[in-house]
Design brief:
This protein is mainly α. Helix 1 runs antiparallel to helix 2, helix 1 runs antiparallel to helix 4 and helix 3 packs antiparallel against helix 4. It is elongated and about 45 Å long.
Amino acid sequence: MPSIDCLEDLCEAIELALNKADEELDAEDEEDEDKIVDIDTLREDAGACLEWLQEDDASKPPPKVDRRPLAETVFGREHPVAGWIALLYGAVDARSQHP
């Protein structure tokens, strides 16, 4: 199971990739506008996972959201960021079952 430090680094890499993808989009374009909303959703949920990982209270339930399909829609199934997000949610799920 990945360490908390490793998962924090993963969250940082996800954040950087989401920021880069966001910068490449045009807010005036309707199609890009939808992607911007999706990227914001991914960013918020990855942040919630990071907060949960850093929480001292082991009894607090993990985020119950799984945005793997959304990440695949935004980036494509084979894109590294889609894999990173899948890894993050898998690790959160595993850590919640084995604190």
